[in-house]
């Protein structure tokens, strides 16, 4: 969090607007690199050049920027493939530039992840690190390297790469986009900002230092922040749509017969705006819907609130994602006042209203992607918060 708050503090001192979507993306990419590989990518704070909107020039900085561009394009192209389901191979073969760029992007992603993977494996293999490693908590890569199947075999280098890409995909995009959408709604509903701050004062009191921060041990006490995150994900799920191809015939109870080869699509974005699921106010941002009569977080079924998937495919990083989002929200609002930059709200392109799903205000337009980013930067002014 120090790099994130340092950058916000710098923006507050210079009194210029910043793109918080970009800031959250850099924060989450830096975090997942540290958690997965034990690697600091230097994407935040003093080590980051705000002048050029890129890290200080270095080989690592270039590869990070190249990776981000490739990763974003691969998601856009994957969204195109998901939309078509069938026929995308033919279209990409006919549009050679599209297919070539996708292959090039995948090669960049692989090279970047392999470089971090190989660097970490090499460091763990050094004799001087073996004894030290006994007393240092493992990063996720170390845990996956230690994993063994029923025959005693470990994950291959390719499997470790695939696992790392999946972790980056989940941890970077989902949390960053959730925080961007949550901040948008917070700035549209300033009473919620006040409630988050009042709750933080109640939970943390007059404690100083690390005790004044959100920790994994205390984060569940921040129920207002938790409800805001859940309501954000209801309206802006990180994976807004998906599809499956049936491998065999099946019958949905009280539903249609599914034949082998049929494509089944669903949209968590649409479910969140379905009046038969969430009621006539489903288009409104109302975190209070998440409280039961005792003021605790209400538990909806996994297939009503499907933002973290459900059943055996429930998101493995759900608890970490909630903790990280709550921590960011509370500690940012404790220390800073944020406002939309002059003219941003009036001029940013908005989504169209949905007939039969009323909402007090439109939201910024979405970018075409497998996940759910804003199409345009969200520019805000940052000022120190007077406690």
Task: Summarize the structure in words.
It is built from 14 helices and nine strands. It is mostly helical and 387 residues long. The protein has one domain: Cytochrome p450 (Orthogonal Bundle). A three-stranded antiparallel beta sheet has the order 1-9-8. Strand 2 and strand 3 form a beta hairpin. Helix 3 packs across helix 5, helix 8 crosses helix 10 and helix 8 packs across helix 13. It is globular and about 55 Å long. The two termini are 19 Å apart.
What brief labels describe this structure?
mainly alpha; Cytochrome p450; three-stranded antiparallel beta sheet; two-stranded antiparallel sheet; globular; heme binding; Cyt_P450_E_grp-I
- Low-pLDDT segments: none
By DSSP (H or I, 4+ residues per run), the number of helices equals 14
Secondary-structure arrangement, i.e. CATH architecture: Orthogonal Bundle
Number of domains: 1
Distance between the termini: 19 Å
Shape: globular
Please report the first level of CATH classification, the CATH class.
Mainly Alpha
CATH topology: Cytochrome p450
Strand content: 5-15%
- The H-and-E topology, N to C, reads as HEHEEHHHHHHHHEEEEHHHEHE
Q: What is the topology?
A:
Blueprint: H1 2-14, E1 18-19, H2 20-37, E2 48-49, E3 54-55, H3 59-84, H4 88-94, H5 96-125, H6 127-133, H7 140-146, H8 157-188, H9 190-204, H10 223-235, E4 242-245, E5 250-251, E6 257-258, E7 263-266, H11 268-271, H12 275-278, H13 318-335, E8 336-340, H14 344-347, E9 379-384
Give a quick rundown of the structure:
Belongs to the cytochrome P450 family. The chain has 387 residues and is mainly alpha-helical. Helix content is 51%, strand content 7%.
């Amino acid at each position: 969090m120090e790099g994130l708050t340092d950058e916000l503090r710098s923006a507050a001192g210079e009194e210029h607007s910043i793109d918080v979507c970009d800031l959250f993306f850099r924060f989450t990419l830096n975090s997942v690199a540290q958690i997965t590989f034990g690697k600091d990518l230097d994407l935040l704070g003093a080590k980051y050049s705000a002048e050029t909107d890129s890290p200080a020039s270095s080989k690592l900085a270039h590869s990070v920027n190249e990776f981000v561009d490739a990763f974003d394009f691969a998601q856009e192209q994957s969204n195109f493939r998901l939309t078509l389901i069938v026929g995308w191979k033919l279209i990409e073969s006919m549009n050679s530039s599209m297919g070539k760029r996708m292959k090039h992007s995948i090669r960049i992603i692989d090279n970047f992840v392999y470089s971090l993977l190989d660097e970490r494996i090499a460091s763990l293999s050094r004799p001087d690190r073996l004894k030290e490693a006994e007393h240092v908590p493992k990063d996720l890569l170390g845990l996956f390297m230690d994993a063994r199947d029923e025959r005693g075999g470990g994950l291959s280098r390719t499997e470790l790469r695939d696992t790392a890409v999946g972790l980056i995909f989940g941890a970077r995009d989902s949390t960053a986009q959730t925080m961007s959408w949550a901040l948008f709604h917070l700035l549209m509903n300033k009473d919620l900002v006040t409630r988050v701050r009042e709750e933080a004062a109640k939970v943390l009191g007059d404690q100083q230092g690390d005790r004044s921060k959100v920790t994994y041990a205390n984060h569940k006490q921040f129920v207002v922040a938790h409800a805001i995150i859940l309501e954000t994900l209801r309206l802006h799920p990180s994976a807004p749509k998906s599809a499956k191809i049936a491998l065999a015939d099946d019958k949905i109870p009280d539903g249609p017969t599914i034949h082998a080869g049929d494509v089944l699509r669903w949209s968590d974005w649409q479910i969140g705006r379905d009046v038969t699921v969430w009621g006539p106010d489903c288009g409104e941002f109302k975190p209070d819907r998440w409280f039961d009569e005792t003021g605790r977080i209400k538990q909806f079924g996994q297939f009503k609130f499907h933002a973290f998937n459900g059943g055996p495919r429930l998101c493995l990083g759900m608890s970490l994602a909630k903790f990280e989002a709550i921590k960011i929200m509370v500690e940012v609002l404790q220390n800073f006042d944020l406002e939309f930059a002059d003219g941003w709200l009036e001029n940013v392109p908005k989504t169209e209203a949905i007939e039969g799903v009323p909402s007090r205000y439109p939201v910024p337009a979405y970018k075409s992607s497998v996940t759910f980013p804003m199409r345009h930067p969200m520019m805000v002014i940052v000022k120190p918060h007077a406690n």
